Amino acid sequence: MRKNPPNLSVAFLSRELPSPLVLASGIWGTTVSLLERAAAEGCGAVTAKSCGPEPREGHVNPSCIDWGGGLLNAIGLANPGVDEEVGLLKEAKTRLNPRGIAVIASVFAGTASEFGDVARRIASANPDFLEINISCPNVEDSFGEPFAASADSTAEVTGYVKEAVASRAIPVIVKLAPNVPSVGRIAQAAVYAGADALCAINTMPGLVLDPYSGQPVLANRSGGVSGPALKPIALKAVYDTRKACPNTPIIGTGGVSDGQDAVEMLMAGATVVGVGSAIYQRGADAIRFIRTELQEWMAAQNITCIADLQDRAHSEPLYETSPSTPPAPSAE
Predict the structure, then answer these.
(1) Annotation says 199 is catalytic
(2) Would you state the pLDDT for residue 57?
(3) Alpha carbon distance 225, 92 (integer Å)
(4) With 70 as the cut, is the pLDDT of residue 265 above it?
């Protein structure tokens, strides 16, 4: 008798999602049709591109390059502004919620109180979840040090946003930064301030030079590293975040390119798994590939549900020494 395929549905906050894959904010979050495509390819939730209080053009080109180990981007939070974003989110919800797909709004701002103002305005679209992007590494010239660099700043922004959306009871997700001394401590500050879930992580600041001119390749000079090079950093951040906040849902994102990457992210402590740069690297079918690979991997290991993968890295190892250490010879 043919076995049923593994069940990919997963509980995340107040929703039962049909898949643990979540479209990360960025590459495909700019139009309703692209959000729909991500859902059709296998995402259980989709995140719109981050929006701010006013339209923003972002940085001039070149703003994104493939440097061989992933992407380096400094888009600069280009977006149409919160008012236009409200319309996009309303339409996305109308189209996607009947299919069981959750819609996540994403917001940024220049001050803690402004985060609250943007959140209050975006809440009129009634998104299923609201992600607050306090960790973009590419706009320091415009906004100063990211709020995610400080536990106090993280807590302050989270508090403003929670108060702003309290009347609509929209769950709030705080997006963390990788380049901090203790991501666990900042995660705890967000949770203590009211965060309902966490997203770990955003991109890592980086620089690529043109060896002939000696100048940075990006117009913004530095950018955010994403793709395969970010994966070990993301796994460690997710692992540390889960240890610090054992009962808080986590979107694990960073360098997920195939099904096995998604498996590792779940084992590290992710509740669901964000996918972004893989769409650039593997093409428009990347999400479908990852979903299929995840399900095939689970079937090969006789794993029937996502819950059986989650948090495995936090269980006690089955061996007392390194698995690469050969056993001691037995006495004759």
Answers:
(1) no
(2) 85
(3) 29
(4) yes
